Amino acid sequence: MRKQRSDRSAKDRSLMPDLREGERHFRWLADGIPHMVLTANPDGCFDYCNQRWASYTGLSLEQTQAGAWRTAIHPEDLEKVDRWPEAVASGCEYEIEYRLRRASDGAYRWHLERGAPLRDRFKKSPGGLLTFSASC
């Protein structure tokens, strides 16, 4: 039993460089596209926003996580945007249009956001949901 755990631990450690490289590649790709990208954990808490999101909204990941993202949404659109956690909780894809304030001039612009779940193929995470991504 101890040997089996040790073998698994060694295998897990050997996969870490591949995981780090995959994460680096994802960030490079997400920061290189002309779209805003956010990801959230299965609880709906944001865990990543790309550089385009930060530049457009003027919000850092920490500010976004703290709920400041709501200040970038047009007040008339908040009610429909507030329904996105339902999509995360249900693990369903969604599509929503709303106005987002551009930090550079304060103007609101319409955006179409699409969200999709990434399922845990090993079924180790709660509800089989690994992460949820959204882009606009």
From TrEMBL:
Domain (PAS): residue spans on this chain: 24-90
Keyword Kinase: yes
Superkingdom of origin organism: Bacteria
GO molecular function, one term: protein histidine kinase activity
Reaction catalysis annotation: ATP + protein L-histidine = ADP + protein N-phospho-L-histidine
A Pfam family matched in the record: PAS_3
EC number: 2.7.13.3
SUPFAM superfamilies the UniProt entry points to: PYP-like sensor domain (PAS domain)
Annotated keywords: Kinase, Phosphoprotein, Plasmid, Transferase
CDD domains linked: PAS
Protein's name according to its UniProt entry: histidine kinase
Organism the protein comes from: Cupriavidus pinatubonensis (strain JMP 134 / LMG 1197)
